[in-house]
Amino acid sequence: MRLVEIRQVKRVKGYFYIDGFKIKAERQASDGYGVLCIFEPSRLDYDFRVVLGPKRYAWFPTTEALKLINEQLDLSDRLTCDWLRNGRGWNKGPRPYPNIDRKLHEILG
C-alpha cells in the first residue's frame, strides 16, 4: 500500500461527513474529527501476497508519512476541541478544554 492522502473527517451522531456526503458509521464513537488515511495498492502488495494472502496489504511507513499523520492527529484534536467549545455537546458550566494547545488525548487521559 502507498499512502496517497490524509483527510480530516467529521463525525456527528453516528454519521461521517466528507465532501458533501453523509455516511452512516457502523462503529459508534464520540462526535468530533478523525484522521482518514487513504491508500492505493502498490508493488509491495504483490511482493508480499504469498505471505499475507490476497486480502491483506503491506505498508512500510516513511518518517515523512508518520510525521504528516501525527500533524493531522494534532489538527484533529484541535478541530474537535474547537467544535465542542462552540457549544455543540456542552451547554452549561465551564468548557472542558480550556487550553487549546493541549492534545485532546492528553486532556481525556
Give a structural overview.
This protein has one domain (2-108). The chain is an alpha+beta fold and 109 residues long. The protein has helices at residues 43-47, 49-52, 63-85, 104-108; strands at 2-12, 15-18, 21-24, 32-40. The longest helix has 23 residues, at 63-85. The relative contact order is 0.17. Helix content is 34%, strand content 26%. The two termini are 32 Å apart. A hairpin with a 2-residue loop joins strand 1 and strand 2.
Short description:
This protein is of the alpha+beta class and 109 residues long. It is built from four helices and four strands, in the order ββββαααα.
Strand runs, count: 4
Our measurement of the CA-to-CA distance between the termini, rounded to an integer number of angstroms, reads 32 Å
Strand neighbour order, sheet with most strands:
3-2-1-4
Number of domains: 1
Biggest sheet layout: 4 strands, antiparallel
**Given the structure, what is the number of helices?**
4
Helix proportion of residues, in percent? 25-40%
Q: What order do the helices and strands follow?
A: EEEEHHHH
Give unreliable regions as ranges.
87-97
Please state roughly what percent of the residues sit in beta strands, choosing from under 5%, 5-15%, 15-25%, 25-35%, 35-45% or over 45%. 25-35%
Radius of gyration: 17 Å
Q: What is the mean pLDDT?
A: 80
**Structural class estimated from helices and strands:** alpha+beta
The gross shape turns out to be globular
